[in-house]
Design goal:
Elements lengths: L1 E3 L11 E5 L2 E5 L5 E2 L1 E7 L6 E7 L16 E9 L2 E8 L4 E7 L10 E3 L7 E5 L2 E9 L5 E8 L11 E4 L8 E8 L2 E8 L7 E7 L7 E2 L16 E11 L5 E9 L13 E9 L5 E3 L8 E3 L14 E3 L11 E2 L7 E3 L3 E5 L12 E6 L5 E9 L3 E9 L2 E9 L4 E9 L2 E11 L3 E8 L3 E8 L2 E9 L5 H4 L6 E7 L4 E11 L1
Length: 496
């Protein structure tokens, strides 16, 4: 069976996975977006369906005034004694915590804090004990992968935090995960930074606390030397064994916008790579230690068909699953119905790290057409291609002193420019259209069946290489301006 990567497209970084029965469950980072930490389910590791979020209440996670790429970092999901646990970091207040649930489709607990620093926390359970790991510095000031034993009921430390491995020599040691396989303990991590030098490394030992011997051929997985290849930034992986005993790695990576265009704006996505253990107990991954855009494998039944949703509308998406907000929303500003949405604007714009009236979907592929009918009373409302508060492209209607107009606005760092204005007179209604390719967005308005091009803009200025940070482009619908009200109908995002 041949499958294509990524298996989850768009801004869903830092995947972690566990298996319960014949089902797999996966979580990803969410940063400043709410609800936090999306949860996916799969029966075959290829097709994933989102089933919820771990952080759905403000009491669980504080996101007020969090700047872009702050908030919720790299989660880990684990299952022990009938209970799911998700541990993560609120990087804004540098606090590691975990939540739990007995019902993967239901609500999760309040946050339980752990007094250990660093980021990218992991939980490992064995013989009634719970071990907590993160990167950072231990109680003696030694850096590396840091471990302590905790009381899983309270989060209290039962042992000092101790550095158990310093990695394979690369920069930015992070993303630790512990496994016991055939009597040995395997400690997997990432180095190189979540960019073009990213890589997966690992070591093994005879005890959960080490010492650990590094894999002689580290890194075990990286695309850092594949110049001109679409898939880059491969790293931050988690191992899983399937029902037939095969091992796999779910990990992040990104697709650059062109063969030689070293920019990526869709964010870090979820990739699946086969793992093979040798007779000596060391494992290898992928194709000569790299991840491919597709793998041909007999590990997956030929009856499995990789499915991909290509059209997203109000009617075929779930407001609570597919859509997200910037930080904690003012719920009274959103009227979400099966076939339309009404937004009330405020004085908070998209340009500041607060809570504008905004609801968005992740952009999942390069080539797309996005359209929506917008009706406006006053203020401004429309579609934004949103990377962060300093990097977003807006196609909107706005009220003027003499009537209404459509505008194309580009926000690139400190440069904020209205590139085009299209007068509508007294008409407060129009269809807004954005056409996307690998390299460029085009902004159009449709009135009375006629399309008018307002302008275009390069995708690279919404990329991580330009904007910085760890997120990807969201397709957002927004309203701005006190006492403004806008109605959105016939929304459609179709990937071509």
């Amino acid at each position: 069976m041949k499958y294509n990567n990524p298996v989850i497209k768009g801004f869903y970084p830092d995947p972690s996975v566990c298996k319960v029965g014949d089902s797999y469950y996966l979580v990803c980072s969410s940063f400043q977006y709410f609800p936090g930490v999306p949860v996916f389910e799969s029966k075959d590791l290829i097709n994933w369906k989102q089933i919820g979020h771990c952080l759905t209440r403000e009491s669980q996670i504080q996101l007020g005034n969090v700047s872009s790429s702050g908030g919720v970092f790299a989660p880990t999901i684990r299952y022990n004694n009938g209970r799911f646990y998700m541990t993560t970091t609120n990087e804004t207040d540098h606090q590691n915590f975990y939540v739990w649930t007995d019902d993967i489709y239901g609500e999760w607990s309040e946050a339980i804090s752990v007094d250990q620093g660093g980021i990218d926390p992991d939980l490992y359970f064995e013989d009634g004990k719970a071990f907590f790991m993160s990167n950072g510095t231990d109680d003696n000031g030694i850096g590396g992968i840091v471990q302590c034993e905790i009381d899983i009921e309270t989060g209290a430390k039962l042992s000092p935090s101790r550095s158990i491995w310093q990695g394979a020599g690369g920069r930015y040691l992070e993303s630790p995960h512990m496994y016991k396989i055939d009597g040995r303990y395997y400690l997997m991590a990432a180095e190189g930074g979540t960019e073009y030098g990213h890589m997966v490394i690992y070591a093994r030992g005879e005890s959960v606390s080490g010492p650990f011997e590094a894999y002689p051929d580290n890194p075990v997985l990286t695309n850092r030397n594949l110049g001109g290849y679409e898939l880059q930034g491969v790293g931050h992986g988690d191992l899983i064994q399937d029902n037939d005993g095969n091992w796999w790695m779910l990990h992040l990576g990104f697709r650059q916008s062109g063969q030689w265009l070293t920019y990526h704006h869709l964010g870090r996505e979820v990739f699946l790579t086969p793992v093979t253990f040798g007779e000596d107990g060391w494992f290898t991954a992928g194709h000569n230690g790299t991840t491919l855009t597709s793998f041909e494998t007999d590990r997956i039944s030929s009856q499995v068909i990789q499915q991909e949703k290509t059209t997203f509308t109000f009617g075929n998406t779930d407001w609570k699953l597919d859509w997200c907000y910037l930080r904690h929303p003012v719920t009274g500003n959103y009227l979400l119905e099966p076939d339309k949405m009404t937004l009330k604007g405020t004085a908070v714009s998209l340009d500041i790290p607060e809570t504008p009236t905004f609801i968005g979907l992740r952009q999942r592929d390069f080539n797309a057409e996005i359209s929506c009918e917008v009706s406006l009373t006053r203020g401004e409302a429309g579609i934004t291609l949103y990377m962060d508060e300093n990097h977003h492209y807006d196609l909107a209607l706005r009220k003027t002193a003499t009537g209404y107009e459509a505008i194309e606005r580009l926000n690139i760092g400190d440069i904020k420019s209205v590139e085009a204005e299209y007068g509508l007179g007294g008409d407060n209604h129009a269809t807004l259209i954005i056409r996307a390719t690998h390299e460029r967005y085009s902004f159009l308005i449709r009135k009375s069946g006629k399309e008018t091009l307002l302008g275009t803009a390069q995708t690279r200025y919404l990329s991580s290489e330009v904007a910085g940070g760890f997120t990807g482009v969201l397709i957002g619908l927004y309203a701005y301006g006190e006492d403004s009200t806008a109605e959105f109908t016939n929304f459609k995002c179709e990937y071509l």
